[in-house]
Amino acid sequence: MDTLNWALIAPLIVIQFVLMIMALIDIKRIHATNGPKWVWILVVIVVNTIGPIVYFIFGRKNV
């Protein structure tokens, strides 16, 4: 555990960051969500990689 393989970890960190930013931008732009927007913001930020995926599946309201 002394050395980390950054070639494997760095892409996961980038994907997590990109998903979080995309979800937060979408929450800001979208007119209505399934539930309060502040709850989805907390889910996206706190639950890291799974939070944005859950938001895109369940949080967006189909118009």
Automatic annotation (TrEMBL):
Subcellular location, principal: membrane
One of the record's GO cellular component terms: plasma membrane
Highest taxon, organism lineage: Bacteria
Localization (cell): Cell membrane
Topology of this chain in the membrane: Multi-pass membrane protein
Domain Cardiolipin synthase N-terminal per the UniProt entry, residue ranges: 18-60
Pfam families associated with the record: PLDc_N
InterPro entries in UniProt: CLS_N
Keywords, alphabetical: Cell membrane, Membrane, Transmembrane, Transmembrane helix
Bilayer-crossing regions: 6-27, 39-58
Protein name as it appears in the record: Negative regulatory protein YxlE
Organism of origin: Candidatus Kurthia intestinigallinarum
